[in-house]
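Hey all, quick one. A colleague (J.T.) asked me to put the zinc ion job into the tracker so the inputs and the structure tokens live in one place instead of scattered across chat threads. No bug as far as I know, just bookkeeping. Sequence used:
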Amino acid sequence: MDHKQALYRRFARYVSVDTQSDPDSRTFPSSAKQLKLGAILVRELRAAGVRKAAMDRHGYVTGEIPATVKGRVPVIGFLAHMDTSPEACGKGVRPRLHRNYRGGKIVINKKLGVELTPKNCPELSACRGEDIITASGDTLLGADDKAGLAIIVTAAEHLVRHPEIRHGKIKIAFTPDEEVGRGVERFDVRKFGAKAAYTVDGDTAGSIEDETFNADGVSIRVRGKSVHPGTAKGAMANAVRIVADIVSSWPENRLPETTEKREGFVMFTDLKGSVEEAEITGIAREHDLGRLKGMERHLSSIVAEKRVKYPLADIRLEFREQYRNMGPVLARRPEVMDNLIAAVKKAGLTPRLKPVRGGTDGARLSYMGLPTPNVFTGGYNYHGRYEWVSLDGMQKAVSVLVNLAREWAK
Ligand SMILES: [Zn+2]
């Protein structure tokens, strides 16, 4: 099956709509422009033959493909998100197709000096002979996650056109606001009615993800004591200096810039204050929940030392749960990953399991009762001007979804 042309056309249409989400917005979805793409997707799902395609008042686009086999086959779902990252411009995206990549560099924008090379992106080397899509150097591409949208619509069209493929009922959902961490906040898991689901929001072909970080927010508030500096000896507690002391006491080998793979970290993200009062906020991340708690105990002990060192100050430390690793949930439902691994192999790829150094909508969904690992899109270098996606990788992801539909009906 050759879906490359259909995939490219869809993808180019979706990235031309600016759907950047907004972390500072209080509305849902966080930016109204996402609804514009939602309306297009409803039309495209209908055109592909998907039933009950509609967008609800929160901006969730859903649809379904009826089963082709009778009997009790579990309902599965495919999900992708419509928004793009607030970290880079998503307006005026002009995709560029670089056919038959021969190795070496890909010039994204000569004038701006934006180019991909096997050196700045080793993942490219695996894509020789493939068609690579980039942006034009001044925006992100939006493969995260418009590649996922195009893959799901194309897989749905294939399933509708081939009723001889044996599968159960398939549900589809496109969500807003994933990039600002609120994608499934108002998602009705029960109404969706699936027993398992897959987000199509990963990276290069073959990679699948069944683990995310455990994530807590960190907040440290210091109330100091302001005194005229001329008479401050023994009487002042300078909140600015105390928070700086706490930040610099955190071990250097437990930071995002010094860790990889399964190593956890604390990152301080915001700092504000004066002599009288100061606050630092941040995030704590670990795949292992026990080790996350261990890191938090370590931070608590640093704060306890500072309380002794600065008796005139009041120092408060708080942790707030953000999301949890979906690994343990998926481990209790082994068929969800077993079917995915089989589907990837049947697409001619070697499955590469890796833990996500971040979260996914699937992590939240898994704890809302819908186990949801993550499938590759064929893309890489998300959230910036160096973002790219392999059209061949996208086509392989279509095969994986079609295979998944089959595997669940066995
Ligand atoms: Zn994404």
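Adding what we noticed when we looked at it: The chain has two domains: 4-212+325-408, 214-322. The pocket of zinc ion is lined by residues 81, 144-145, 178, 201 (CB under 6 Å).
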